[in-house]
Amino acid sequence: MEWPEFAATSLWRGIWREDWRFEPVDLVTVADYVGVEILTWHPEEEKLNGALIRNAGTVFVNASLTRPRMRFAAAHEIGHYVLGHEGDLFCPYGRYAVQEREANLFAAALLIPAAVIKLFWLKLSNIAPAVRVAVVAERLAVSRQALSYRLETVGMAGRAARGWPCLA
Ligand SMILES: [Zn+2]
């Protein structure tokens, strides 16, 4: 298991509750747990997803994103914080530096825990794969694209892709 995945999984286990029922991971609880605050803002540079002002313990998320993308951006910035990436960070769309990749891996693992995805897949095994992806993405408040990447990471992409015409 890669370090960002390990960090996210450990964090998720720390906030897991007995009465948890397949709802989106509560990022306010996560933020409180690690000691940061999440705020939204309208960046002058439109193509920024989010930012981390480390010394202020504050994560900023672009308010014009869709809800799933805002959640992913917040989890990504929390990832930079938890993974110890130094300095203040401003995260544009589609940048693939090592730290960005690590923060994305962290965010995916936090919002779509491997244990949860496996439970969902069993629970929804009688539903067609394409529909299942849509249902799970909706239930976890993540984008279908984030979920499809995550399925690859946890080695379930083959099963997810069957009957799924638009992966390209
Ligand atoms: Zn970033």
Q: Describe it for me?
A:
By secondary structure, the protein is α+β, with helices and mostly antiparallel strands. The chain has two domains: 1-111, Orthogonal Bundle (Arc Repressor Mutant, subunit A), CATH 1.10.10.2910; 113-168, no CATH class. Helix content is 52%, strand content 12%. A four-stranded mixed beta sheet has the order 1-3-2-4, with helices on one face. A hairpin with a 4-residue loop joins strand 2 (48-53) and strand 3. The longest helix is centred in the middle third of the chain and has 16 residues, at 67-82. It starts with a helix and ends in a 7-residue tail after the last helix. Residues 162-168 have low confidence and may be disordered. The structure holds zinc ion (ZN). Residues 76, 80, 89, 91, 100, 103 line the site of zinc ion (ZN).
